[in-house]
Specification:
Elements lengths: L2 H13 L4 H22 L10 H4 L6 H31 L8 H11 L5 H11 L4 H10 L3 H5 L6 H25 L3 H9 L4 H29 L3 H7 L6 H10 L6 H33 L1
Protein name: ABC transporter permease
InterPro entries: MetI-like, MetI-like_sf
GO cellular component, one term: plasma membrane
Length: about 290
């Protein structure tokens, strides 16, 4: 009679055993590094507590680097939402052949995680000074991208377009289930009441999809704002954004201050955390509508 309760008590830890590798990974590579950054942001080189690192975030070129990073994140998130929504809507509601959906979703799953040095190299090889498209336009049409169109892959719009490679697929992955959740009865009811297709989208579909769209925008913003490897590999020091300044401070140059770098990383954590919290909140609201 006493063996059954003991067996039940032993069963609970075993059911959670499969989560142990994940929990270990999160603690070692997310929680502990984040705590180290937060603590280091409020310390001097000698380890004493200070607020000077946080105050110094308002000095030099740091505020402008945050502003440029925010503008790039907003631009890439806006274009990613707009283009990704149009592509997902074309697959779900449009006349696009149904067989395209599966390859598109598969490619989106891969491309949304394709970043860093490989992505930077791909765009440099395509739109760089001696890139494939650059040479093709110059040799066949006499068009020099930077001289005639004012475009450089090492500029604001160059980095924004590079980010779109993973922003658009991420938007497609997230918004497609929301579009599929729109019930046919809602459209039929709108048509019975005399609503046009434009009125249905403006007064029914888009208000329902608004939490999903805004939540995905917040996620794309955080995704672009926290992208480090792609920005450093693509632009080097030619663009004054937070990840590049952070890299210079943490690297420990002669004028580098690692603890100021921790403070800059702490500021990035706060901004991305706000964006992710907003995404989770809006996602919960969207799921209530689509249930």
């Amino acid at each position: 009679m006493n063996q059954a309760p003991n067996a039940r008590r032993l069963r609970l830890p075993l059911t959670w055993l499969g989560l142990l590798p994940f929990v270990t990974f999160v603690v070692l590579f997310l929680v502990l590094p984040t705590m180290h950054i937060v603590i280091g942001a409020f310390q001097t080189r000698e380890g004493a507590f200070t607020l000077q690192n946080i105050i110094d975030l308002n000095s030099g070129t740091i505020p402008s680097s945050y502003w440029i990073s925010i503008k790039i994140s907003v631009a890439s998130a806006s274009l990613g939402c707009l283009i990704g929504f149009a592509m997902a809507a074309a697959v779900v509601f449009g006349t696009v052949p149904r067989w395209i959906k599966s390859p598109l979703m598969t490619f989106s799953g891969v491309a949304s995680n394709f970043a860093g040095v490989p992505l930077a190299f791909a765009f440099l090889a395509t739109f760089g000074p001696v890139g494939l498209v650059t040479i093709f336009l110059r040799n066949n049409f006499g068009i020099v991208l930077q001289r005639d169109l004012g475009f450089s892959i090492l500029s604001f719009w160059g980095l924004t377009i590079t980010y779109l490679f993973f922003q658009i697929p991420l938007m497609i992955l997230i918004i497609t289930p929301a579009l599929e959740g729109l019930r046919r009865e809602w459209r039929e009811a709108a048509e019975v009441l005399g609503a046009t297709a434009l009125q249905y989208w403006r007064m029914v579909a888009l208000p329902i999809l608004a939490p999903s769209i805004l939540g995905t925008f917040a996620l794309l913003f955080a995704n672009a704002f926290g992208a480090v490897a792609t920005a450093i590999a693509l632009t080097g020091s030619s663009l004054n954004i937070v990840p590049i300044q952070l890299y210079a401070q943490i690297r420990g140059d002669v004028l580098g201050n690692p603890h100021l770098g921790y403070a800059m990383a702490f500021g990035m954590i706060v901004i991305t955390a706000i964006a992710n919290i907003l995404y989770i909140w809006l996602r919960v609201r969207a799921e209530r509508w689509l249930k």
